[in-house]
Each structure stands twice: as structure tokens, then as C-alpha cells.
Amino acid sequence: MHDSILTYAKSRYLWISIVLCVVSIALYVWHDPAVAPNGGTWLGYTLGTIAALLIVWLMLFGIRKRSYATNMGTTRGWLSAHIYLGTSLILITLLHCGFQFGWNLHTFALVLMLIVIFSGFFGVYAYLRYPTLMTRNRESATRDAMLEEIGEIDQNALNLADGIAPEIHAVVTQLRARDGSDIAIAKIRSAMEQRETQLGPAPAPMQAGQTMLLMVDFLAGRADDKQAEALRKLIDMLSRKRSLATRVARDIQYQAIMEIWLYIHVP
After folding, report:
1. What pLDDT tens digit does each residue of the chain (267 aa) get?
2. What is the dihedral angle through the alpha carbons of 136, 137, 142, 147, rounded to the nearest 10 degrees?
3. 52 sits in which H/E element
4. Contacts of 125 (CB under 8 A, 6+ apart)
5. CA-based nearest residue to 196, from 210, 184, 182, 183
6. How far, rounded to the nearest angstrom, does the alpha carbon of residue 216 sit from its chain's CA centroid?
7. What is the pLDDT at residue 73?
8. 8 A C-beta contact, residue 153 and residue 241
9. How many CB atoms lie within 10 A of CB 136?
């Protein structure tokens, strides 16, 4: 069974965090200072020290995940502890200050810490969701492989367009600089409609709103015409390129979502 970072070692660090929070709450309830609970009492200093040590330890995760030769636990174990102990900081720091807030450096530090923690929550969501979506979107192909196939389609489409018509060749040439597959297909459709007008009615007349499938059916009915066959192949190529370009754009989007939160979380 797959053991995710949230269930690592039977959720060991979840239970450790729960115990830590329960003990902190119990001490806070038991503590009866002469003044309102705050960071200046012995419990406030104790919880503040625990919170500070946790923050230092959490920062060490960046070093641990780049230390490949160390035997100080697995990276997945560190990450699981990073998530759960980092979450427990919310309660520990609130108990540390006795829920006393003001316009001062202490509250500012608390706000920064909360931003880091909540950006981490989004990071957990992203890393649990988007890798699966990326794998499904790529269909067992890498991004480099998809880009390479797009390049091959561009070249093959240009070679094919050479034998069709100058205007079709010009449209395909535009695709080498950017993905304009939709525009190109629309222009080729227009050229086919003009050609249909010149040749007379076809068995299945083409209308402006017909789908790509009907266009292919129309072309298949003219299989004895080399130009029509070439156009059919060209439309297939452009459709394939449009599909690949969409998948590449989606892959880049997923990766960006997975990484952009780090610009908030890490600094």
C-alpha cells in the first residue's frame, strides 16, 4: 500500500503533534499566573522556547533534503514531521503569547510565521494533487518528447503544404513561430469550402459550423484527389499539434502552481 507523506509510519508525526498540542493546552489551563497569560510568564517562555526550537528544526529541512548521504531519517519522514510539527506551531505560539496581540514586532513575527505555515498548506495540497494530474496529462510522455513531436509535426506539415497550395503553405509557416492551430484549421477549412464551390457539390456539403470529423469524411470521399488527401493529412497533423500544445501548456501550468508557492514559503 502506498504510504503518503501524511500517513508516513502510520501517521507517527501526526500523533506526536497531537500529544504536543494536548500537553501545551493542559499546561495553559493549569497555569494560573498573577497576571493575564502572556509571553513573559514561565509558561510563556517555555512555550516560546519550544516554538523557537521547532522553527529552527523546520528550517533545517532545506538542508536535509539536499543531504543525500546522511542517515538521519528519510526525506519523506522529515517532510511528514515538517508538516505536522509546523502545523502545531499555530497553537503553541498562540498559547505562548496568551492570545495577547498588539502593534509590535512580536505580532509581526507571528503574522509572518502564519503566512509561511498557510503557504505550506497549499504546498501540501499541490504536491498531493498536481503530480497525478501531470502524469495523466502527459500520457506517459515527457514534456521534452511532446515538444520534439511538435517540432516534427511543424516540419512534416510544412513539407506536406508545399504540394498543396501557396496559401496553405503560408498558413502552416506561421505555425512555426507560435501555436495557431485553430486559426490554421479554420483557414484550411475556408480553402476547402472555396475548392468545393469550384468543383461542384460534394456528397456531404460542408458548412461553416461542421466539425473536424465531417471535414475528414468529406475529404475521404475525394480520395482520388491527391490534393484532398494531402489536406486531410495536414488537418490531422494540425489537430495533433493543437492537442500536444494544449497538453504542454497545461503541464507548464501545473508545474508553475507546484513551484510558485515556494517563493512565499521558503524566504
Report:
1. 457 899 999 999 999 999 999 999 999 999 988 888 999 999 999 999 999 999 999 999 988 888 877 778 899 999 999 999 999 999 999 999 999 999 999 999 999 999 999 999 999 999 999 999 999 999 989 999 999 998 899 889 888 888 776 766 777 777 665 555 555 556 555 655 555 565 554 444 333 333 344 444 544 454 346 777 787 888 888 889 889 999 999 999 999 999 999 898 888
2. 170
3. helix 42-59
4. none
5. 210
6. 35
7. 84
8. yes
9. 9
In the structure grid, which three cell numbers stand for residue 9, read together? 509510519
- pLDDT, residue 211, reads 35
Q: Is 265 helix (H, G, I), strand (E, B) or coil?
A: helix
User: Which one-letter amino acid corresponds to residue 63?
Assistant: I
Whether 62 contacts 90, CB under 8 Å: no
Q: How far is Cα 157 from Cα 174, in angstroms, rounded to an integer?
A: 11
Sorted by sequence, the CB contacts under 8 Å of residue 3 that are 6+ apart come out as 9, 76
Angle between helices 143-162 and 226-260 (to 10 degrees): 160
Give the span between the Cα atoms of 157 and 205, in whole angstroms: 26
203: CB partners within 8 A, 6+ apart: 218, 221
**Cα(109)–Cα(160) distance, rounded to whole angstroms?**
64
DSSP 151-181: HHHHHHHHHHHHTT-HHHHHHHHHTTTS--H
From 25, 31, 21, select the one nearest 54 (Cα to Cα). 21
